[in-house]
Amino acid sequence: MVKFPDTPTFAGYNEPMRFEADLVDLEVEGEVPADMNGAFFHVRPDPHYPPKFGDDIYFGGDGAVSAFYFDHGRVHFKHRYVRTDKYVAEEKAGEALFGAYRNPLGDDESVKGKYRGTANTNVLVHGGKLWALKEDSPPVLMDPWTLETEGYTDLDGKLTAQTFTAHPKIDPKTGQMIAFSYAAKGLCTASIAYIEIAPDGTLEREVYLEPPYYSMIHDFAVTEDYVVFPVLPVIGSWQRLEAGLPHFGYDPNKEMYLGVMPRGGDAKDVRWFSAPACFNAHVLNAFNEGQNVHIDLPVGQSNGMPFFPDVTGAPFNPETAAPMMIRWTVDMGSNSDGFEQSAPIAPIPGELPRIDDRYAMHPYRHGWYHTADPTKPVDLPSTPADIGLFFVNTLVHQDFMTGAPQTYWGGPDIVFQEMQFVPKSKDAPEGEGWLLALANHGNSRRTDLLIFDPLRLAEGPQTTISLPFMLRSGVHGNWAPAENMPTT
C-alpha cells in the first residue's frame, strides 16, 4: 500500500501528484498569439513512491516533465515521468529502493551502483533532444514530442565527468552549450569539469580543475570570454553521509570563492577570488567589458536552504537569507584576489531570475524574478513556511536602465512557478515578446499557464491557459521555438 508521510514535504499544498496526462486543445481565456509557436517544457520533483526512510527533502522527488505545445493559437499538453534508472527499478519493485537525498549508504543492495539521479531540476532542447537534468548524474535524453525517455548519455563515450549541471548555458551567437560538472570524479570529490557541447549535441571540450573545497555549485556564470564558478560554503563529505546528516551543510566560517577561467583556457588559467561567506543559488546574467567580468545574481548573507542546516547549529534566519540582486565584478587584470560587490541593483528581494536569453553573456536591460511578499494575504492549505522555498506569490520585472520595478501579485491562493521569456521574433528588441508563468491555485488544486506582456507585467496576464489539475511546484524550464524542435 502506498502511503506518504504526513509531513510538510508530502502533505497539504506539497501533496505528490503521481500522474501522467495528455490533453489536446487546452481551455483558453483571452487569445494565444498565433505567431507564438514552439514548446514550453518544465520539470518538477514528484515522488512516485514514499521515501525509503519515512521522510526526505523536496528535491528528492522523481522528475516529472510537463510540455505545453503552442501551435498557431492552439495549446496541447503532455506530462510524463522521466524513466531514470531509479524510477524504473522502483516501479518494478513497487516501493522506494534508494535511500536519503544524495546518500547511497542506505540504498537497497539490488540498486547499488545504479545512477541515483532523478532528472528533476531542469529541461531544455538541444541538438534535437530534450535534456532532463539533475546535477548529481549525467544528462538524461528524451524525445521532445513524445516525452519518451531514451536514457542517460555520456555523449558517445566522450563525456568522462560523472555528473552534469542543471544550468547549462546556450551561447546565443553560436548555439554552443556551455556546461560544467561538480563532484566530477565521484560523490564528494572536489573536482570540476568545464564542458563545451556543439549545437548538434556532440562533445567538443572537457577540462578539469580543482576548487578550494567540495561544495554545491548549483549554477554558474558565462560571458563572451570567461566562465565563472561560484564555490560557496554549502559543503558535503562522506563523514556527513556516514553520520546520517544531510548531504550538504552551510559553513559560515568558510570563505566563498569565484573561479574565473577564460573560455578557451584550462586549469592553469583559473584565478580564484575570495570573499566572506554568503549564499547564492542562481545567476541572472553575466558579461565582461574587457577584463572586467560582471556577474549579476541574487545573494543572501546567510544560508538560503534550511534543509541543508548550518554546521554550527545556528537556526535558519529568513531575514539575512533573503536574496538581493547584487553585481559582483572581477578584474582579471588586477593582482588582487578580492572582487567588488555592488549595492543591490534591484530594490525588491527575490529568486529564480530570468532574462531575454538572446542577451545571455552580454550587456542587457531587463530581468524578471519571483518574490514572496509578506504584506499580501495568504489563503492556502499549507503555511508559507511549510510550502518552503517554492512559496512565491509575486512576479517582478526589473528595468536595470531606469531602476524601476513592476510587480504582479497573483492572489491569496496563488503560488507561482519559474517564469520564461519568449521573444516575439529573433530580431525583436530586448523584452519584446511574451512572458510565461505557471500559477498554482492551492485550494482548488489546478494550474494556469499565464501569458503576460513582459514590459507591462503590472497590468496582469493577457491570456490564461487552464489545466484541470494542479502541477506540483517545479524547479526550472525552458522555451524551445518551433525551429529548434526536431521534425516529426
Question: Can you describe this structure?
Answer:
- The radius of gyration is 21 Å and the shape is globular.
- It has two domains: 1-151, no CATH class; 154-345, no CATH class.
- β22 and β23 form a beta hairpin.
- The protein has helices at residues 85-93, 238-242, 318-321, 384-387, and strands spanning 21-23, 27-30, 38-45, 63-71, 74-81, 122-126, 129-133, 140-142, 149-152, 169-170, 177-182, 192-197, 203-209, 221-222, 226-231, 234-236, 248-250, 256-262, 271-275, 285-289, 292-299, 324-331, 340-341, 351-354, 366-371, 394-399, 405-409, 414-416, 420-423, 433-441, 446-452, 463-466, 477-481.
- It is built from four helices and 33 strands.
- The strands form eight sheets. Strands 2, 28, 29, 30, 31 and 32 form a six-stranded antiparallel beta sheet that branches. A five-stranded antiparallel beta sheet has the order 1-5-4-3-33, with no helix packed on it.
Give the low-confidence spans: none
Query: What is the domain total for the residues?
Result: 2
Q: What structural class do you assign from the helix and strand content? A: mainly beta
Strand elements, count? 33
Cα(first) to Cα(last) distance is 40 Å
Please give the share of residues in helix: under 10%
| Gyration radius, in Å | 21 Å
Shape: globular
The major beta sheet can be summarized as: 6 strands, antiparallel
Number of helices: 4
Provide mean pLDDT, rounded.
97
Q: Summarize this, please?
A:
By secondary structure, the chain is mostly beta strands. 5% of the residues lie in helices and 35% in strands.
